[in-house]
Design brief:
By secondary structure, the chain is mostly helical. The chain has 10 helices and 4 strands, in the order E-E-H-H-H-E-E-H-H-H-H-H-H-H. It has 2 domains: about 110 residues, no CATH class; about 60 residues. A two-stranded antiparallel sheet has the order 1-2. A two-stranded antiparallel sheet has the order 3-4.
């Protein structure tokens, strides 16, 4: 990528961590979409997750591996560094390999032995019948629009909070009970799987 990329190795006096920063310069301002697209490329993903090739990580057997700059900080363990690395809240793909850098064979064995027993507390998605989907599509669009409009009105003071009961009654008239029954039925089907 043809831009000014700065690698900052942050020394917080107790640990060192890599941090890749693309400072807003003329290039970034002229071509922001190219800049963002780069983060979704393989090179951008590796840079955002691991830092700079050759400085904070190397590629071994086609896998990123942190360098001694990251892994052999004399002041603290790699575990602390991995905790500190984290991810900023940006819309890009996280690479689990950065977390795996701290996994020892013993931890890997423990992780692999308990993984089959870990179940999601809540389903990521529910499955609905076509009839249920038709009802949800008809009801939820109207309800969601009304909810968002009223939420903004309540927050901005355009609608007094003493009208909140009216708001609840209107949502119920729009078919809240029917929507909740459909979602509950789908959840119960999920639990039976």
């Amino acid at each position: 990528m043809n831009q000014k990329t700065f690698v900052i190795v942050l020394d917080h006096s107790d640990h060192v961590k890599p941090s890749l920063h693309d400072f807003t310069d003329e290039w970034c301002m002229r071509k922001p979409t190219v800049h963002q697209d780069w983060f979704y490329s393989e090179e951008g993903q590796l840079a955002h997750n691991f830092g700079v090739l050759g400085l904070t990580y190397t590629m071994e057997n086609n896998e990123p591996k942190y360098t001694d700059l990251i892994m052999k900080d004399a002041k603290h363990s790699p575990l602390l560094k991995m905790y500190e690395l984290g991810h900023p809240e940006l819309a890009y793909q996280w690479d689990i390999r950065y977390e795996n850098a701290m996994v020892t064979p013993k931890i890997e064995k423990i992780r692999d032995s308990i993984t089959p027993y870990i179940k999601d507390k809540y389903p990521l998605t529910l499955s609905f019948t076509q009839e249920e989907r038709d009802v949800l599509n008809a009801r939820l669009t109207e309800m969601t629009t009304y909810k968002e409009e009223m939420l903004n009105k309540f927050i901005m003071g355009a609608e007094p909070l003493d009208k909140f009961d009216d708001y609840v009654q209107n949502i119920e008239k729009m078919g809240l009970d029917q929507v909740l029954k459909i979602q509950q039925a789908a959840y119960e089907r999920y639990l039976k799987r």
